[in-house]
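lol ok so funny story. i was supposed to be doing the assay writeup but got distracted and ended up predicting the structure for this chain instead. priorities right. anyway since i did it might as well share w the group, maybe its usefull for someone
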Amino acid sequence: MKSEFLIGTRGSKLAFYQAELVKAKLEKNFPLLKFTLVKIKTSGDMIRRSSPQPFETKRVYTQEIEDALLAKEIDMAAHSAKDLAVDLPEGLALGAIFEREDPRDCLISREGKKLSELNLGARVGTSSVRRKLQLLRLHRELVVEEIHGNVDTRVAKLEEGVVDALVLAYAGIKRLGLTNSVTDIFSEEQFYPAPCQGAIAIECRAGDVEIREVLAPLNHEESAFRVASERAFLRRLEGGCQLPCGISTHLEPGKKFRAAGILFSLDGTQCVEAKVQSDPEGADQIGVRLAEEILAKGGNQIIRVMRQDVEK
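and the output, tada:
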């Protein structure tokens, strides 16, 4: 076995911290081996789109890292699981899913208010279509403004008064130690999380047996099952990371698996919700079954119109 392993990661504060979690766990499991983090800038860190691309499956936050992995410039890569395309590049595989953090979304407001307490016309910042449509479903009088950048950049814009509040992934806020700033945490039934939100995925070369053996102890079985089902859900909807959909999954103490999902039209005038519950069968099967319930209840028409709008 080689003595040093290189872990690729984006350079943002949150991405680097997540990679450090992976590194620390590997060092604990293999104290005689050396693990080194390698920062790689991705196109998603440099390009900002002005309009949503709901079916975009290009790897905007992962491509350069995955290219380095395929070129054997790094040995593994740590990603936010929700950034990964539903179909990985040929030759790559998920080596492990770290134990998942809280998948919910949260609000940070300058005046310490909850969502229901925000003033009429309050400006709430997010770059996510899913978050925008759910915000307006709960509070039609808000003004949702597009705001980009990493967590630090967005919080700085809040403090500068560019917006009155932000919606962010609670997992990232927890990992950065900013929970004291949180003024509201949305229940998953009220505000559906993005597929795989809060999960860290460790990617490797599919045929690299040595690396897969190193990563195997890091895999958290329940988290991996939920991530697989949520990726299958998104794959069946044929969507990318900006498809306005959300999903909530739970493995009950009695080993029943529950999943609920939602799909919005881009203008927010239509949405379809569905729920499924079963004994844990194949994770892919559960995700696909939930997506097909949504498609059958009207989601097919939403997707059809969305594709027509995108192609114009």
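DSSP finds eight helices and 13 strands in the chain. Residues 64 and 116 are 41 Å apart (CA to CA).
back to the writeup now i swear
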